[in-house]
Amino acid sequence: MNINQMTRRQFNELPRREDWSKEVQCDCLIILPAQCDWLGVIRYHIKRLLARAFRLEPPRECEIGHLHDSGYRRMDFVAVKDGEPVCRLAGGSDMLHIEGIGGLGYRWLEKHGGCPPFLVPPAGWSIVCLPKSGLLRMFSRNDNMICGSALSSFQIYALPRKPIIEEET
After folding, report:
1. CA 78 to chain centre
2. pLDDT tens across 29-39, in order?
């Protein structure tokens, strides 16, 4: 189904990637914020009231199902190829790092031998809001991206665009 015609529910029903530790290549991502866990919110407030009344340690906000340990809402991401959803990627992340943590680009350590690069070519990242679901679609002018492992922080990288005209040697 085309992502422009999908509802939020349809995005939530997509399967998760089979191996959370493998990188996934796609041409865009859909940002899927966690749905509010109202039952978790109610439980949290009851526990908080009981903790005050009985002088117990208060519950942590991360006990609410849609929140990460950091207190921010968790996000999932849907990989998309050619306008069709592939899979959900990282339901437990609270942060998205564009061009990796620190913004140094894909596999910068291998490319630059431990010394951070002085120049990471711009990828021209864009975000649009899907017409039906209202979810955010993120993409790079480079057309393709790599999505990292499903960890607490989720990293994405634009793949370098292949030159249209090969240089003559």
Report:
1. 8
2. 999 998 888 99
Assess if residue 23 is contained within a domain.
yes
| CB environment 19-47: b (16+ within 10 A), e (fewer) | eeeeebebbbbbebebeebeeebeebeeb
User: 64 lies in a domain?
Assistant: no
pLDDT at 117 over 80: no
* Lookup result for tokens 């975000």: 127
Residue 73 DSSP one-character state: B
What CA–CA distance (Å, rounded) separates 88 from 32?
A: 9
In a domain, 114, yes or no: yes
Q: What is the pTM assigned to this prediction?
A: 0.78
Name the domain count of the chain. 1
